[in-house]
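Extended Data, panel c. Modelled sequence:
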Amino acid sequence: MNLHAPDSIAQHLHCAAENLRDVCENPRRDAEVLMGAVLACDRAYLFAYSDRVIDETARDIFQHYVERRKEGEPVAYIIGKREFWSLLLEVNDGTLIPRPDTEMLVETALQRCIKAQATVLDLGTGTGAIALALASEKSGWQIEAVDFHADAVALATLNANNLALNNVSIYQSNWFAEVRANTRVLDACFDLIISNPPYIAATDPHLARGDVRFEPHSALIAADDGYADLFFIAEQARNFLCDNGLLLLEHGFEQAEKMRNYLQQLGYVDVQTVLDYGGNDRVAIARWSGKG
């Protein structure tokens, strides 16, 4: 690979895209994102000043980034940032990279939970993406976000501070374990419990492909063919949902029917599946009537 010959932004981008052609879905976009990170600029700048000659330091950093991407490392981990719900979040390799499909979880929550003053619990918050997206839309909601890993709690807290979102409380908990001890919500009664938990089976071949090779498997893999955490949350959420509270869970596209059946067995009502932007079954939504 030779990125030293080109001088202009346009030439660097062309060369990088060619080198990434066989390793990522959109090599030109990835090259542009990496160059934008190096130059601290947006894509519009890259087009407007495509003839600009970048200096040797910027060239070397860009080459290093492209080499890392060529090895399969996700762009978000290389630059340390990812946009989600129009919010720019800090990310690291200790948490999952927020994905566009998870925005459907946020969208569904905003559509179905219509209270102006709602209490919300986000389980396994990671970067804080879901909780912070909801907080950015609903200043009257009282949102709590938990994660088992202290590093994730620190990262989500950093993102909340960077975005100046003050209606989110973030603390460490293994799912519900520490919620009652830390919550500010009266009687630990939530109008909405939402989560994107691990739901991939350990034998899933997708774990050896693409970006997920670099993501923490503890945030991806669940026991019992991927259902263990989904089922646990569904069971325990009944003890933390207010009457007519909503449970929203992201799951795999082949898990919808089993999730609906299980939620109904647990006594939830109005059980439905919501499709993601690609038309795949992605979100289970159910209401707890409080009558079990």
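The chain has a mean pLDDT of 90. This feature is highlighted in the accompanying rendering.
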